[in-house]
Each structure stands twice: as C-alpha cells, then as structure tokens.
Amino acid sequence: xxxxxxxxxxxxxxxxxxxxxxxxxxxxxxxxxxxxxxxxxxxxxxxxxxxxxxxxxxxxxxxxxxxxxxxxxxxxxxxxxxxxxxxxxxxxxxxxxxxxxxxxxxxxxxxxxxxxxxxxxxxxxxxxxxxxxxxxxxxxxxxxxxxxxxxxxxxxxxxxxxxxxxxxxxxxxxxxxxxxxxxxxxxxxxxxxxxxxxxxxxxxxxxxxxxxxxxxxxxxxxxxxxxxxxxxxxxxxxxx
Length: 240
Ligand code: PXP
Fold this sequence. Notes:
This protein has helices at residues 9-18, 25-34, 53-62, 75-84, 111-123, 136-144, 155-159, 163-182, 198-202, 214-237; strands at 3-7, 39-43, 66-71, 88-91, 127-132, 149-153, 186-190, 209-212. With 240 residues, the protein is α/β, with parallel strands linked by helices. The chain has one domain (3-237): Aldolase class I (TIM Barrel). The chain has an 8-stranded parallel β-barrel, surrounded by 7 helices. Bound molecules: pyridoxine-5'-phosphate. The site of pyridoxine-5'-phosphate (PXP) has 19 residues, from β8 and α10.
C-alpha cells in the first residue's frame, strides 16, 4: 500500500494572500502528521509565491515523518536543499508563469545537470526523485542519472474524460511502474489526485508514495468551515 505525503503549498498560498502569519504551513504539517500523513511535501519555488525559506527551515526541524522538498534544478534552490537537507527532493520542471507544475521533468534533455544534482544531493544524504511522465526514456534516464525514485505524473489520468482515456492512462502508469521497478527505482505518483479519482490509482500495486495537495486542502477548507463560522459567532455573541 502506498504512503501518503500531503503537499501543503496551498496553506502557504492562503497566508500569502494577506502576507500575514496565518495559516502557518508549519502548524498544518503538524496536523497532517497527527492525522496520519506519512510525509509532508512543499515546493520551494524560485519566486517564493507560497512556501518560503523560513517555512522550509522550520519544517526540516519539526516534521518527524518524511520531509519531501519539491524543487526545480535552479542553482539557488539546489544550494538551499544542500543546506537544509530534507529527507528527499523531488525534482520538477518550473516555469515562472505556470499555476502549478506543468508536464514532467525532461531528464533526457537535462541529463548532465540531473546527474550532477543527484550526486550533490546524495553527498548530503538526500534521496532524489524525478517528477516525470510515465515515458520509458525519461524513466531510464532517471535511473541512469542515479535517482532513487521517480514520481509518475498522474495529471493526464486525472484530466481524462472518457473511460477509454482513463484506462489508457492507468495502463501507462502500470507500464511506467514496471519499467521503473525493473530499473531499480522506487515509484511514486502524484498530481491532480482527488477523493473522486484516487481509488483506481491506489489499486495499482507497488507504488511507494502519493503526493496529494490541492484536493486535501480544498476538502479541509470546506470540512472546517462550519466549525470556523461557529467559533467566530460564539465570540461575537459572547464578547465579554
Ligand atoms: N507532485 C508534484 C510533483 C507536484 O508538483 C504537485 C503539485 O504541487 C503534486 C504532486 C500535488 O498535486 P495536487 O496539488 O494536484 O494534488
């Protein structure tokens, strides 16, 4: 059975909407962990649009389960990872204008840089995973570069509309898993997974971890809204 890493970037996105100090992703990480999350994932983007350097520093100190840092291969961010030493880095492509990570990392095209980054992370005792489409060439390039794991991009599966398309993407994920396992890689999966679409992916055997963010934070907002309104109303009605 795969483990669940909760991506808490969106908690920081809400904080940044007001540039204030709540909600604190560090508090959110504690709650996720107490609720049974096996890992905490954050993406330190070059533009720091949600998670910032302080969050990553504190999460490293406070997360007791697995701390997975998602990041591009930009030199500034690589140096931060070397200093912070998360348990794992997941290398992703990063474009400035994107709303979220788009597509997978091009491990073939960026093979030399990837190999260098893997060596540097391993020197610091950090596991390396690459976020890629379930494409044989990308998987084999990740293995050849020395990666420990690949995270197969489930976005195309999540966006599929018809049963035939869904089955096609599930088959691609299964084939990708087989190729990766045969190459000695651990296989993770993530992106676009929701309460509605998780079960067919959860039935795929031998997946190591899921990274899920948007859907969980979205559910938390609605699940917590009743209590939040009740608590505010109580203070308004009993101001003394
Ligand atoms: N995996 C990777 C590599 C991602 O970039 C993201 C989004 O930050 C996720 C998983 C989580 O995706 P979602 O927020 O759609 O669950």
